[in-house]
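Budget justification note: compute hours in this period were largely spent on complex prediction jobs such as the one shown. Inputs:
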Amino acid sequence: MGETTYSFDHRGVHFVALDNVSRAKPEIGPERLTWLSRDLERYPKTTPIVVFTHRPLFDLRPDWEWFTRDGDKAMALLAPYQNVTVLYGHIHRENAHDDGHARHYAARSLVFAFNDPAQPAKKPMPFDPAHPFRNLGVRLVRAGRDQATGGVSLGLEEIELTMREHSGTEGFQQLLKATPA
Amino acid sequence: MRRTRGTQMLVLAALVLGAAVASPGRADGPERVVAITAHRFEFVPNEVTLRLGEPVRLRLRSEDVVHGFFSRDLGLDEVIEPGRTTEVVVTPGKAGHFTVICDHFCGAGHGNMKMTFVVE
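Corresponding output:
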């Protein structure tokens, strides 16, 4: 297995994979925070930065273990940078959070889904045999040029999956054929 | 060696002070002690009622592996190691139900290992 914390650059964006799931406790740890500090100092404060983590770096629901003990230290290191986005998993549901400086997004899971963190107790969403993929992650994203602004326009479409004849590439081709362009 | 009266008084004072420090429930700490046992994947008991503003000494033990004992709301952040008793004093500052989780990965059911303090 390779390194679980690393970074790379692509088309002017600095991407950072930050491991906050491999230690016994839900934390990044001092060694990786030191690494992050040294990694970031090479970049101008205007560089767009995308951080990949497993757990959220903010206190979403600490009593559900939906947090990172030292996530605030990572966000403090990222604070001088003007364009920071954090993409994380762990919670098995969609969530968007703006802390006033950075934006944090979680996407749906590909397996089971958890309930809304506004509810009192954490529990997996009920399985519906009639819609086995409901609340799960696969959606179709259409990207194009926004004529009005000149920027990129993204459109999200829900896909109600069905059990397919094939898995892997053949199954994916079947999915694309079933979805009108 | 011949002790002076002053030295004897000092020895007596130290003995009295030492006895007070060693006695639970005296001026050294809270009256009430609550014992909580951790094992995969539960705390026993899993619900404890506390009184608002009353300090309580929690006596934590593990019967198997290392567990965590964490509540952001109550300011609890302990590690429970097998073979060693962990003690912590908590004084609830607000009423309500507060969940404590094991935040030290302990196996497949770790994600549901929790208990509740009810503060009245």
